[in-house]
Amino acid sequence: MYWLINLSTRGKLFAGFGMMLAFLALVVGTAYWGIHAIKASQKSLYEQNFADVSELKSVLINDDEIRVYALTYFVVTGQTERQGLNRQMAETLKRDAETIKKIKERNANNAVVVAWLDELTELREQYRLTRESEVLPLLDQGKSELALKLANGIQAERFKKIQALANQLIAAATEQAGKRMADAEQDAARFLHICEAVGATALAAGLLMISLLNGAIAKPLRDITGRAERIAAGEILVQPILRPRKDEIGLLEEKFNHMVASLQEKVTLARQIAAGDLSMQIKVASEKDVLGTAFASMVRSLREMNAEIGEGVNVLAASASEILAGTAQIAAGASETASAMSETATTVEEVKQTATLSNQKAKTVAAAAQQAALVSQGGRKAVEESTESMQRIREQMESIAESIVRLSEQSQSIG
User: Fold this and answer.
1) Sign of the CA dihedral with 210 first, then 211, 214, and 217 last
2) Angle at the Cα of 283 (from 282 to 288), degrees rounded to 5?
3) Please, are residues 69 and 89 in contact by the beta-carbon 8 Å criterion?
4) What is the dihedral of CA 384, 390, 395, 398, to 10 degrees?
5) H or E stretch including 134?
6) Torsional class of 78: left (φ above 0), alpha (ψ -120 to 50), beta (otherwise)
7) Which side of the chain, N or C, has fewer Cβ within a 10 Å radius?
């Protein structure tokens, strides 16, 4: 069913609902066909079999009526009354002939019924001819005994045959109607089973389509929603696409993975920045890439801050070198002063010990004193130079402090 997965969402919905509508139409069509067949069977049953039975019974009733007219003919003697009876018998016979003709037309495909109807028609015709050509003329001639003999003889036998044949036809029509009814019931049961089978198939197909649509649409959306919730909780994980899809769900999954991969790349960049590595090159996906632009701006600002801090450190190092040189000069001056004082103490000790040599050493002492004075002047000059160096260091520290303040303000603006 991979072809279904590659269909667009609209195509999947059209396919699913189209199949369900097709099965629904099949169920409706099957039901309509079954109902139409049952109606046709019932129509045939009522218009043929029941009609045959009803019309054959009417023929029997008419035959009884004609027999009554014939017996009445024996009783009445008036010519007018007898003509009325002849007219009524002729009308009844005409109706019966038309009825038998319709029955024969309806059963044209049933050779047995057609043969029985032909035999019935022939017997009725013989019965009519004997009555009209022999019995009634004998009654008109006053020969009642001969007429009664014919009526109770051959005519009675023919009438019994007509009745028996008519009842046989009625029984056959009734039996055929029963078979038709049984067939109609079987057809109804068969159509019911067909409808049940088609309905069950439609239900199974509908459940299958629901399952397929759930697996093709709902389940992938739930998976993507779960991954989105995990990303919202801080877990950035790219799930590989096992089987690429060409529908909207596949496109959504592909773009979602691209988004997660972009977030992972930003996380890697953040870790490199936290480690102090600002050498990476930030690639902005598009003009609308707000996060990438912010990362690029942050890296650029951090690089500028590092440059300014490096310059401040260089200035501080230079100042420290100058302080170190001044300190060395002060130490050298102090060493010379200590040496001069030591020589002075030695000279004084020699004066104490050798008073006699004081005059001789006066020049030496004066020279030493003069040398001490020169050394003292050198030490004072070294102290003044150290003071000036400290002043310059203080000014440089103020400059470094201002640079650090500016860097702090820029860091706050970036954050």
Assistant:
1) negative
2) 115
3) yes
4) -160
5) none
6) beta
7) C
Q: What is the pLDDT along the chain (415 residues), one digit of tens a residue?
A: 556 666 677 777 777 778 778 878 887 887 778 787 777 777 766 667 778 788 888 888 888 888 888 788 777 777 888 888 888 888 888 888 888 888 888 888 888 888 988 888 898 888 888 888 888 888 888 888 888 888 888 888 888 888 888 888 888 888 887 887 888 788 788 878 888 888 888 888 888 878 877 777 777 778 778 777 877 777 776 566 555 677 777 777 777 777 777 777 777 777 878 887 777 677 776 777 777 777 777 777 877 787 788 787 677 777 767 777 766 776 666 566 556 556 655 654 664 665 465 456 556 645 654 664 564 465 456 546 656 756 776 676 677 667 766 766 765 666 5
Q: What are phi and psi of 159, to 5 degrees?
A: -65, -40
How is residue 105 written in tokens? 């037309």
- Going by C-alpha positions, the residue among 412, 407, 414 that lies closest to residue 305 is 407
From the list 164, 172, 177, 166, the residue with the least C-alpha distance to 57 is 166
Q: How far apart are CA 124 and CA 105, in angstroms?
A: 18
Contact in structure between 199 and 82 (CB atoms under 8 Å): no
Question: Hunting for tokens 């003044």 — which residue is that?
Answer: 384
Q: Tokens for 185, please give them.
A: 């019931």
- What whole-number distance in Å separates Cα of residue 78 and Cα of residue 100? 33
Q: Letter for the amino acid at 321? A: S
Sign of CA dihedral 268, 274, 280, 284: positive
DSSP label at residue 77: -
Provide the Cα torsion 268, 270, 271, 277; round to 10°: 100
Regarding pTM above 0.90, the answer is: no
Query: Around Cβ 394, how many Cβ atoms within 10 Å?
Result: 11
Interatomic CA distance for residues 230 and 212, integer angstroms:
27
Backbone torsions φ then ψ of 239, nearest 5 degrees: -95, 125
CA 86 – CA 94 distance, rounded (Å): 12
State which amino acid sits at residue 285. A
What contacts 24+ positions apart, CB below 8 Å, involve 319-323?
A: 319/392, 319/393, 319/396, 319/397, 322/389, 322/392, 322/393, 323/389, 323/390, 323/393
Helix, strand or coil for residue 233?
coil
Separation of alpha carbons 173 and 11, rounded Å? 58
